[in-house]
TrEMBL record:
The gene is adk. Pfam families: ADK (PF00406). This is Adenylate kinase. The lineage of its organism: Bacteria, Bacillati, Actinomycetota, Actinomycetes, Propionibacteriales. It is found in: Cytoplasm. It catalyses: AMP + ATP = 2 ADP.
Length: 191
């Protein structure tokens, strides 16, 4: 199974990505988590991307694509993977299309988690209290929403045109959303 999960900041991508990856027995690969790990450990990559991420902007495509390519080359991705937070730009979409075409390894589904914008900000501010992520403050949240709406939301059309999109309503409890997502993805991959 080769899956993507997309959604605005605060849509619950990370949480549902973990559940979905477990269900299909594939690794969940979160570019955001990879960047945060590198920032925490002050690696050269972390030092390079910290200010960008703290400002709510996207890390440059070449940097992000190289990280994803090397992660996908690891043995645990041979049977499939779930990408969480990649691709986020049209450049990254084309990069991934090319990468998978060269390996004759097409995607099975692209999950889109949809939540109303007003609910997103509330969720992120609540998460800020719990997790203390440096990019979960009001200004950065607003910027991340704008960047998502401008650069990432339009990518859904690309996958819709390919017949890969699975739209999931992300409102409700974590358990409700998970069950809804499982049902829709199961139906999509069996069809
Ligand atoms: P969220 O979806 O809540 O914004 P993520 O953990 O997915 O959280 O991403 C956090 C930040 O990491 C993003 O705001 C961005 O700065 C950076 N990032 C993650 N994935 C990518 C990507 N594919 N391209 C560019 N930047 C990325």
């Amino acid at each position: 199974m080769k899956l993507l999960i997309m959604g605005a900041p605060g849509a619950g991508k990370g949480t549902q990505a973990t559940a979905l990856a477990e269900r299909y027995g594939v690794p969940a690969i979160s570019t955001g988590d990879i960047f945060r790990y590198n920032i925490k450990n002050q690696t050269p990559l972390g030092v390079k991307v910290k200010a960008i991420i703290d400002a709510g902007e996207y890390v440059p495509d070449d940097v992000t694509e190289e990280i994803v390519a090397s992660r996908l080359a690891e043995p645990d991705c041979e049977q499939g993977f779930l990408l969480d937070g990649f691709p986020r730009t049209m450049h990254q979409v084309h990069f991934l299309d090319r990468y998978l075409a060269e390996r004759s390894a097409p995607l099975d589904a692209v999950v889109s988690l949809m939540v109303q914008p007003e609910a997103l900000v509330q969720r992120l501010l609540a998460r800020a209290e719990i997790e203390g992520r440096a990019d979960d403050n009001e200004d950065t949240i607003r910027r991340r929403m704008e960047v998502y709406a401008g650069q990432t939301a339009p990518l859904l059309f690309h996958y819709e045109n390919k017949g890969l999109l699975v739209d999931v309503d992300g409102t409700g409890t974590v358990d409700e959303v998970r069950q809804r997502m499982f049902d829709l993805v199961d139906a999509h991959v069996k069809a």
